[in-house]
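Re: [help] complex structure
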Amino acid sequence: MEIFRIENLMVKYGEKVALKNIDLIIQRGEIFALMGPSGAGKTTLLRILNLFEKPTDGCLVFEGKRLNGTHTEKLNARRKMSLLFQTPSVFNASVFENVAYGLKIRGADKDTIEEKVINALTIVGLEGNERQKARTLSGGEAQRMAFARAIVYDPDILLLDEPTSNLDPANVAKIEEIIMRIRSERGTTIVFATHNIRQVKRIADRVGILLNGELIEVNSKERIFAAPEDARTKAFVNGEMIY
Amino acid sequence: MDSTDFLINGIANAFSLIFNLNPYILSITGVSLKVSGAATLLAALTAIPLAFALSFCNFRGRQALITLVNTGMGLPPVFVGLFIFVMLVPAGPFGSLNWIFTPGAMIIAQYIIVTPIITGISIAAIKAVPRSIIETVYTLGGDGKETVIVTMKESKFGIITAILAGLGRALSEVGAILIVGGNIAYTGSVGGIGEGLSYTRTLTTAITLETSRGDISTSIALGIILITIVLFVNLLANAIQRRD
Ligand SMILES: Nc1ncnc2c1ncn2[C@@H]1O[C@H](COP(=O)(O)OP(=O)(O)OP(=O)(O)O)[C@@H](O)[C@H]1O
Ligand SMILES: [Mg+2]
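Output below.
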């Protein structure tokens, strides 16, 4: 069942075209990888899915509905998602307060917040750091805290922008395992951006290759690696692409 | 008496006035704190909502208000004093209120001086909250209201600093309150110096008066108290900035 449908989308920043001719369907419950070189438009596409950025042209259909409608409609849609930034930003507060944020604005009660925050921190290996000021976390710790903050309210859709770029191999494995587990336990739809070809091999179901703002190929992981349709995909996954 | 004696005597007498809690000096300090404190409080109550409105809302006249705030930050106090004076003198438009030469008039004048300062510094503090923090609120499902709340939390130390800067400015201001307050003390003398207890006489206006009539010890005593209070306010502001 489809959860996102993008039709003929274009995004321009001033004169600069960040995305063009994008047609894409994301299925509910899949792990979809957006792969492509730096500046290809991965972050921009995730921001579009999060209803964060307004497309210059084209449209986005979310759960069967075109979302050019009201504020409440968009807010309700956004409340089902979370987007984890490439470089996470932390609130000037404790680790606990940071992770609790999404639950608080959804009106969760104190006991639920306590339980879910501790649980999320345990999942990312930051249990015991609740009282620490979030600004004093290391880069990798901050990224894991931001991951906990993004999953703590059990969003239906998780949009992850290079979620493991600051992490050491052990933590990369841990986050990848969490991503797989969240999907299998909760059926969460996960779209993630990455440059990391091996990561895509490990966790993705389907892959979209972005190049210069265009989606040159969307295929199952198996097809992308074994029998890509586009010569540029082949060059990219073989690491031959010059960028 | 040579110049060293003059200074040493002046300072020694000043300290004795302070430590003996001279009622004249205490009453002046009290008026200073009350007037500047009230003006700063009222200014903060206006300036902080105004700073958020100017930062978050797009309304007609916004640009004009920002220009007004920027101009107001450098407004000469004497001019504000003159303006309030003209409004409040018996022949002026609000003369019938009988507010001229009262602490109330002084509070109004300082309110006008301090509000743009607190607003301007608060706007800068709000601007200093990174865009990525606001975006993070959205990515976690927050709406416009929540971005304002988070911005308040993130900029709270900057805003407290703005209030303290306003208070410091009010406490050291002299031109406006001299004109609209009249530098009045009651008749008679207390503790052998000055006149009676202060009505609209503040640390700054009293210093101008006592210096001009040659009572150097009293002036120095007032000066020490003024600088101590202003220094304390600044130290507090620094401590808060360091905590951030
Ligand atoms: N706010 C903006 N204003 C102007 N140009 C922008 C803006 N945001 C993105 N761009 C441009 O759009 C293009 C796509 O950017 P995007 O951040 O989506 O790339 P990316 O694939 O995520 O790259 P990376 O792997 O380096 O994160 C880039 O050329 C970028 O410079
Ligand atoms: Mg990016």
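The longest helix of chain A spans residues 169-186.
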